[in-house]
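**User:**
Everyone, produce one record:

**Assistant:**
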Amino acid sequence: MPGFALWNLGFRPFYLLASIFSASSVLLWAGQYSGWLPAAYLQGPLWHGHEMLFGYAMAVVAGFLLTAVRAWTGQATPVGAPLMALAALWVAGRVLVLTPLSMAAAVVNAAFPVALAVAITVPLLRARNIRNYFFVGLLVLMGMLVAVLHLALQGRVELPSRLGLQLGLDVMLFIMAVMGGRVIPMFTQ
């Protein structure tokens, strides 16, 4: 496949972005804690929880699913410009929560898991890979939960803002348990 190798498989940009973000988020956290980022929409522990769950962990899930769905189905997942667009959407979500643009941050952060769901739906449907359809639903659910978090934080819905974070953690733990259940036996055989 021609082109820059980074954009030829889904795990490459997302694992790279997750690793860069894990290191830089420590600096961002220190900047927020010390007051150097006073205009950030998400602050303190809520920012930390949001970014570890819907930022870092979601990037790892994206890298895994974009690569695994390709292997499970024999069908192509996004590469090149579509993969770049997906990665840019994830990066935009990380940047927007550090600005006062609360609605833009909400829309972009909710859009990423849904866009990822669409990206894996096409190959799953083409291959009739029913066994893995549930990942699509879980990703859409993650998009809804991050939207609930943002809308509650903005006072647009009457729910505790941490509800989206707590339920999102439950869904993420389930996703990771299933991913581990698929990968660990292969490596331990």
Observations:
- The radius of gyration is 17 Å.
- Helices lie at 11-33, 44-73, 81-96, 102-126, 134-153, 161-188.
- The CA atoms of residues 90 and 112 lie 6 Å apart.
- The chain has a mean pLDDT of 93.
